[in-house]
Specification:
Elements (H helix, E strand, L loop, with lengths): L3 E2 L13 H17 L5 E7 L2 E7 L4 H8 L3 H27 L3 E9 L4 E8 L6
Parallel strand pairs: 1-2
Antiparallel strand pairs: 2-3, 3-5, 4-5
Helix pairs in contact: 1-3
Length: 128
């Protein structure tokens, strides 16, 4: 299934996609690589020292089945464990794209509708 990286907080110029679109695309690419499928769309927001990426859809068939069996906590725990293991890689990737050091990262998965939220906090010394 394809995806759309939707970013309404910036306008791309003639040089190519905007920075937040690149971040959205990178997060979708990572989800596809890690889980075998990615979200249906993604949108990134930059607020001072915080980057938030909201991704909609993208649960695997096994995760959807576990939810149907009534086990959302197990799906959430698995996603959280996996994201914890991948945090260094994700933080490094975002840091390289944004050009600022990521000092912490948190991920959350929500259901009905299925939404993944990735939160990156940058050091306050690196920019304005």
């Amino acid at each position: 299934m394809g995806y759309n990286a939707l970013v309404h907080t910036e306008i791309a110029d003639e040089r190519g996609p905007g920075l937040l679109t690149l971040v959205s695309n990178e997060m979708v690419k990572a989800q596809k690589e890690f889980f075998g499928r990615g979200p249906e769309n993604a949108k990134a927001y930059m607020l001072d020292d915080v980057l938030i990426v909201v991704m909609r859809g993208g649960l695997t068939t096994a995760e959807r089945t576990m939810l149907d069996f009534g086990h959302p906590d197990q799906v959430r725990a698995f996603r959280q464990l996996f994201q914890n293991e991948m945090s260094d890689r994700l933080m490094r990737s975002v840091s390289e794209l944004i050009g600022r050091e990521v000092v912490t990262y948190q991920s959350q998965v929500l259901f009905d509708p299925d939404i993944m939220v990735e939160i990156f906090v940058f050091d306050s010394e690196s920019g304005g």
